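Q: Predict the assembly, please.
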Amino acid sequence: MIIQLAKDITTAQHAQLEEQLKAINYKSNHVKTQFGDYIIGVGKKDFDIRTIGILEGVQDIHRVSDAYKLVSKKWKVQDTVIDLGDGVKIGGGHFQMMSGPCSIESEDQIEKTIQLLKDNEVKIMRGGVYKPRSSPYSFRGLGIDGLKMWYKMTRAAGIKIITEVMMTEQIDAMMDYVDIFQVGARNSQNFNLLDALGKVDKPIMLKRGISGTLDELLQAAEYIFSNGNERIMLCERGIRSYEKAYRNTFDINAIAMLKEKSHLPVIADPSHGIGVRRFVEPVALAGVIAGADGVIFESHHVPEKAFSDGQQTLNHQEASKLIQKIRKTHALREEMARM
Amino acid sequence: MIIQLAKDITTAQHAQLEEQLKAINYKSNHVKTQFGDYIIGVGKKDFDIRTIGILEGVQDIHRVSDAYKLVSKKWKVQDTVIDLGDGVKIGGGHFQMMSGPCSIESEDQIEKTIQLLKDNEVKIMRGGVYKPRSSPYSFRGLGIDGLKMWYKMTRAAGIKIITEVMMTEQIDAMMDYVDIFQVGARNSQNFNLLDALGKVDKPIMLKRGISGTLDELLQAAEYIFSNGNERIMLCERGIRSYEKAYRNTFDINAIAMLKEKSHLPVIADPSHGIGVRRFVEPVALAGVIAGADGVIFESHHVPEKAFSDGQQTLNHQEASKLIQKIRKTHALREEMARM
Amino acid sequence: MIIQLAKDITTAQHAQLEEQLKAINYKSNHVKTQFGDYIIGVGKKDFDIRTIGILEGVQDIHRVSDAYKLVSKKWKVQDTVIDLGDGVKIGGGHFQMMSGPCSIESEDQIEKTIQLLKDNEVKIMRGGVYKPRSSPYSFRGLGIDGLKMWYKMTRAAGIKIITEVMMTEQIDAMMDYVDIFQVGARNSQNFNLLDALGKVDKPIMLKRGISGTLDELLQAAEYIFSNGNERIMLCERGIRSYEKAYRNTFDINAIAMLKEKSHLPVIADPSHGIGVRRFVEPVALAGVIAGADGVIFESHHVPEKAFSDGQQTLNHQEASKLIQKIRKTHALREEMARM
Amino acid sequence: MIIQLAKDITTAQHAQLEEQLKAINYKSNHVKTQFGDYIIGVGKKDFDIRTIGILEGVQDIHRVSDAYKLVSKKWKVQDTVIDLGDGVKIGGGHFQMMSGPCSIESEDQIEKTIQLLKDNEVKIMRGGVYKPRSSPYSFRGLGIDGLKMWYKMTRAAGIKIITEVMMTEQIDAMMDYVDIFQVGARNSQNFNLLDALGKVDKPIMLKRGISGTLDELLQAAEYIFSNGNERIMLCERGIRSYEKAYRNTFDINAIAMLKEKSHLPVIADPSHGIGVRRFVEPVALAGVIAGADGVIFESHHVPEKAFSDGQQTLNHQEASKLIQKIRKTHALREEMARM
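A: Predicted assembly structure:
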């Protein structure tokens, strides 16, 4: 149950509300975000929600049967729009692409990527400075200094940054140099990290776990939201299946179903979703036609020399062509939505 | 190794060829199809294939490293086109839709489905008369009499039939009333059935197994081909994954990859691929944009009363709209292919 | 709902019973097996089963909520014992081992295997004469002649035969030379084959599908039972998972749970369950301690030269040692059951 | 490649070694643990390792082809023994059980659990004070105060504590009250946490990821080891599969294979491995007979009232019986190892 509080609710009204919930044996969680003030009531007893709805200080009340509450479309029917500033918006009809290398490597590499994005009017650059790697002996990223260099260059070019944060201790240092924090698949149930990102006023892109269910993904998003941050994107990046022909199995069903279950924007990641360069295009277009609010894909000026993920990374010529095709596919989807 | 034999190869030339293969310790399989005459040589020794290529009676020779041979694109670069007659073709640029109920139930139902197809210029009707059911106590289909009734009605309307065959004993009786034999997911490694269908001169649509790999699907197709029947379609219908939010997980990666691995047409089945009616559309369109040569989906005039699979079946209004959208999406794909 | 009919039920009583089921809108399935006479009623209406229980000709009546009925332990609490003759029994406290090669290859091979079994007092020999193979170009077994040769030799030695049947057309020819028909994992939902085996008075060992659920396995067994054959064993042989370190993932949970869900004997197949020779032993012993009624495993006098599955096949020395350990483990399980 | 350094290696010798590695283009990682001093060389060039082996200051050198190095049995053939003090050892022939509730709840609960353990001579108590929960609205544990209370009571009773740590910030505060740090399945690839635990001189029990591969588990262990901590246990706790009949699918194959791949002790967790109370016993015994060095399972004096995981938790009577059976099964395994 979600109780939306009035902006001008008084302390006394709030206390009365809490008391009433206690009376019916409901556990109450107070959630205060950038945009709203809510009480999430969790309990078993069935009761007429109007008895609470009519209380002073209550703006609205909704019953949500899902395990997740605030991220559910059952409560908030209108799609969430995330505004990154400078006219860059995601969700609720706004579509964005994000591209760039797996790892940030050098000034030269950043410069070339920025050129690619500017040439194609793409507004968000992806790249990793903290890399989760299976082996401790692999390259683990340039760290905060790489981020600062990167930020300086993108800022000048009017490009936004999305990059992965791996631990709570990194948040503060990264804060001023990041436009979207990404949570990686391996951290999708790192609940302390989610808690911490809920306290940050920056958008978060949350990747589905390696073999995460949609329910787990939405509950992970609920962690962030219930800690105070409403600006969340969900990212489908392929799941682990028995099939060995590709790195992951892109779950196209998830794109369609997440759009129904939640009001949050949904992003498709075809690069990890199939993991093979020459198939990134069809998977990307499939994600778009199925309803994604954005696409994130890996590109590099020389994929063969990339520090990581080269085998699933497009070169800039391929990337440019894909961007055009994504635009055309998105336009058709919009047209068909009006049929 | 595939050795394509000349049309006019003599018995003596053939014998010489076999001898040569024996000499290098290769097992030889003679394959004679509707369209060609081949020897599939399987062995370990590496040798200069030109020593065989120059023999009299040999038209061409190819090394194919995949476990499957004749269905591989490494050998036959040109896409296979399956001609059903009356101008209905699939593959190699020809795109088809197939729709109709899970189970054939009655004259009235067939009539209404035919009307749907004619109104939308769809040329192939799907439907089951032999139904594989998990429980022995479920409805198992109208059988051969249902097929005959159905055939009579579609024939009059100029519509083709695709329907599932479950066992070799059914083939002869069904033969005259079927345009495409379908092999179901549960029979995708029923090798005796595949052998038998290889001896039939009717197109086969082979569904991927419940948790079949692409390799297994292609080797199953190889069974059919190597028994003499080249007219095969591959069908992606969703795989079994850990995710419980849908019946199956449609594997969009498979569409893209099968098109590269094989010259055979690839069909998308979004109905089984997600198993939830209101998501059939986005999955179908995803399949098309990713490269499918056709789409098969379930429709019924009153899905709520269907004998089986009602929960994933579109009504006729939804079906009509989907058909239009599939056409538009396919047209865009063709347009983008020229970019 | 299972209605057990009295041995002396009259035609009139039977008709009255059917009428009563019709009156409450229950679909009735008449099942006559080697041992009993049943009506399986399937319907939705809730009613007092005693109204049927008191009818003349009804011996007993049970409500079974599972999708499977006759194979459920909710109905038949006593474990099924399968008697192969000559004192060889499986289930209900009787434990058996079955061993031998993947494929029957030669007289010499059979002779050596028989010696292994006799030396170790194992009563059942496994081996394939019809082999389901992924590739059409692989060795597919010696066929019926191989079976006859094999039968002649085992008969003389007092050893029973278990072997796979792949299609209904093979049943009659194999009938006199087989003690247990095996249904392979790829045929576990070949419903026509299951129907046909239900009409045969020989025990059946049914393997779980490549990625079959327990529910599907039990419903497959229900096919056999409801066609008239109560003598069924269930075999756990590993499932397909994402883990690539082994051929299959042996599902030890299944052993424990099948023993609770069904009264049928449960057999562990560690050879396919892990697919790596040096780990067959620990998996076999795990199956035994968890409750299996028997173990089937592959052995060969020279595994390195086996026609198929050599990499998961024990040599005779290893097999002898495993047999001893299985006996000790089984003895401990029996001892602990009394704790 | 693992280069074990001599205890008395000089700075000059070390420098020379590094130089030599650089010369052949090998990346060198210096690892200093409680017990040894190593250089892990990672590179592609093939060379005669004796050229390095003969250098002054080098004690030993090994080639390890696995992605993981220091945790591989290819290098360290002798099993690792973890000594918790007071005669409590795990691995290399030493077997331990660990039991207790999912969540630490109260003094009374701790007291009753301690009594269970003392009565059965079990030396290690499990319990959670930081609980990873899918939903942010669930009970998340008593935290550090709960841990301190718990520690005081177990200390007095001579019982060791194993409990989960969820983030690096918790390590310092927990340090003095913990005997074994547990890393949960959801954190199995939280590489920063693994790094941090590598710097702690306390044993770590690392759970396999929700759908982690053996390779990923071993590489996660390599993170800990390469940061300086050799005292690691690997825990199999069931994997995520398509089968919905149980919470997880216990991977018995993993027990057998991990024992071969690594010298680290392997622990079986049957509670999470099947997730159903009445099947914990057979799965536990299977884990033991297959080679586990220990078993961790959940128990509670009133499972029906447990704050979490009640459905998979044994009551104390069941727990006592299981402990006895585990001992008997382990004894048989030891006996059979000598056969």
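Chain D touches chain C at residues 211, 213-215, 239, 241-246, 249-257, 260, 273-274, 276, 278-279, 282-283, 285-291, 321, 324-325, 328-329, 332, 335-336, 339 (CB under 8 Å). The CA atoms of residues 14 and 191 of chain D lie 28 Å apart.
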